[in-house]
User: Fold Integrase catalytic domain-containing protein from Drosophila pseudoobscura pseudoobscura.
Amino acid sequence: MHGFCDASMSAYGACIYAVSQGDNGVKANLLSSRSRVAPLKTITIPKLELCGAALLAQLMHEVSLMNFNCSYYCWCDSTVVLAWIKNQPSNFNVFVANRLSVIQELTSGMSWLHVPTDLNPADMLSRGSLPAELINSHLWKYGPTYLTASKDQWPSTPALPEPVLEARKTILITNCASRYLVEESKFVNSFPKMQRIFAYVCKFIHRRKSGITVEDLRLGTELLIRLTQQSRLSTEIRALETRKDIKASSSIASLSPFLDDCGLLRVGGRLKNSTLDFEARHPIILPKNHSITSALIRHLHEKHLHAGPQSLLAIIRQTYWPIGGRKTVAHVIQKCVRCFRVKPRTLEQIMADLPVDRVSESRAFLVTGVDYCGPFLYKSEVRNRPPLKCYMSIFICFSTKAVHIELVKDLTTAAFLSALRRFICTRGRPIRIWSDNATNFVGARNELAELKSLFLSDSHQEAVHQACLNDCIDWRFIPPRSPHFGGLWEASVKLAKHHLRRALGSSLLGFDELRTLACNICAIINSRPLFPLSENPADLDVLTPSHFLVGAPITTFLEPDLVHLNVDRLDRWQKVTQLQQIHVNDVVLVKDENFPPLKWPLARILELIPGADGVSRVALIRMATGVSRRALAKLCLLPLRDEVKGMDPSTGGVCSGEARV
Assistant:
């Protein structure tokens, strides 16, 4: 099989001739042909010849599928196309490469040869011919005469030219990393050292052999800053050198920058007529996130005794203008180890889920937390004996947050077990008790030394463990040195201390009276609201821990007003009640925002003026300057309270009193 292709500016085509040998000799006849009109877009003749070769390759491939047992030869009169076919498609442009890959794939195993134009029958397809011309053309019907001759008489293929046309251009792109002397220095983190290094560089440039002078340091600093600016702000510097506008997207476009006589980039602004120094009016711009900028900020931060971000930024802007300002300075200060060690920050993790005991449905005090607080002082029953210490054992329910308070006289194991027994008899036996780990008291204050020794003692832990085993109670501890794991009972301890210290003040009560007050505080804590019972704004009822204990808030009986009674007529509990009420003749501090607390004037309450609801919010007071009215919110009641006998001083009577502590 012999195939021919040709092309012109009008069309391109291909034809195939079958050469057979029989009794009558060797004959050649036209087997198939195909032609195409040239595209409307003008392309070169070599590209059209390549399109004809691609058409011939498709036609030869279709004929080869008929399984003829013969050789296949492809003829073309374009030496450029033959040179393209002999090369790799990747060496040429996309148009040529795509068609070459198709030709080489379809004509694999076939031979491509050169035919003279006058012997190429496909020339009639490319230039167009009438039907009569095709019928009378011997070349078209039987092909060139050398098809029936031996291979020695076939046209020879001339030397193919170097494929230069449509060759893909090879461009070598190199990326040369910019190397700056400043960033490659090993002393880049020390601004004073970099100043001295570049001072020596300036001496070398000017060939001076004397020691470093102030002028050398100034020139070295200018050279250092100039190289720093060129490394990050080179585009802006070139624009200013050529007197072009800086892009609006530049980080320094709003600073109206300009180049000074030394080539340094400075802030413009509107302070030309100011009496400030030139450096203060036009600070040197420092690029953001540069090692020299960070080294300068770190140097001035240490020089000015670790100044804060705002004061340090004000100091820096006397000479330099770091881009980013406060954020840049704060970012450097945050990495100061000395400042961090003075004010360290602990790691904060997201809070874990509530434990199962906190979210499981159970009766009150089935799972309980316990903690101690104190010591507190109570009056001895023996006359002239010093006050004695006592402690509060606070139990809190995990599911309802209800609180139970037991008062114990000492820190012995027996006293604690007795308090635990009273709690069990009152609230029921729990199945699990949580408490602080013993090592939590290692860092306690001196007043908690006894608590520490109690919880660290092996005998106490063993006794409590055995007592709990007998009652089938599981005793568990929170992790060591982790008081935040016991935040539930720590909050209850804080509430109990809040009410107790404000109710007692500096008074000294007996043990039974203190126990009564502890029960009163327990009732108040258990009556605190947890959340509203309904979303109706007219419904003022709230859910309290007491609802889980007695079905309603625990309220104490109404105490009578004891303010008008003399202190000598009161019994012990009435004195406790009186401590929680506001008194006439109490000594107070009058708050004055213009003076420190130690300079606030003293005054005595002469009269409490009640409001429409019966609650006193204004008082008539006597000060050194006279009598005036003040809001109770502006008065601070002193812990020391005078007990006044006799007539009211305001009526002109004589007052005599004794101070009590």
Summary: The longest strand covers residues 25-37.
